[in-house]
Amino acid sequence: MTSHMADASGKGLVDAVQATHQEIKSLLDSVAAGDDRQRSFERLSTLLAAHEAAEQEVVHPLTKRADGGEQIVEARLTEEREGAETLQKLQTMGTTDPGFDDLFASLREAVLKHAAAEERDEHPILDASLSPEESQHAAAQFRAAQSVSV
Q: What b/e readout covers 28-37, taking b as 16+ CB neighbours within 10 angstroms?
């Protein structure tokens, strides 16, 4: 069991998503600092892909049900597609490529902005529209979807 799943057990959906955001931020910092860069980047790549897949399966459909939710989700999906393209380029380059640092810096900035936008725009909708039981159930679905992808 990975740490982000253990940390979010028994909590609601927003807590589960934000726990993963914190793990992603930590890995972004590790890669940027050069701490075991290749291993950290591989872990970050895997977690980002799993996280976005779980959001698309569980989080975004719940957000779309709310007034204005469709537009919020569309904006997040555009960011996710752009991030996936940049991540793919970085994976092809490898962490030792001279251009890695600059492209990684742009990915890092985009990921941080994306997470902040989710927390600002999407998470309040989820908190307001889901009962505690629905939120806990959705959190379990989110963690399961994310773990299947890892």
A: bebbeeeeeb
Q: What angle do CA 93, 89, 92 make, to 5 degrees?
A: 40
Domain range annotation of the chain: 3-149
Per-residue pLDDT of 47-95, as tens digits, reads 999 999 999 999 999 999 988 899 999 999 999 999 999 999 999 999 9
Tokens 């726990």 belong to residue: 19
Structure tokens at 24: 């992603």
| 53 in Cβ contact with 149 (< 8 Å) | yes
Q: Residue 110 CB: number of other CB atoms within 10 A?
A: 16
Q: Cα–Cα distance between 4 and 30 in angstroms, integer?
A: 16
> Greatest CA span in the chain, whole angstroms?
49
CA angle 23, 48, 96 (to 5 degrees): 95
Query: What pTM was computed for the model?
Result: 0.88
User: Using an 8 Å Cβ cutoff, are 41 and 90 in contact?
Assistant: yes
**Cα–Cα distance measured from residue 5 to residue 20, given in angstroms and rounded to the nearest whole number:** 8
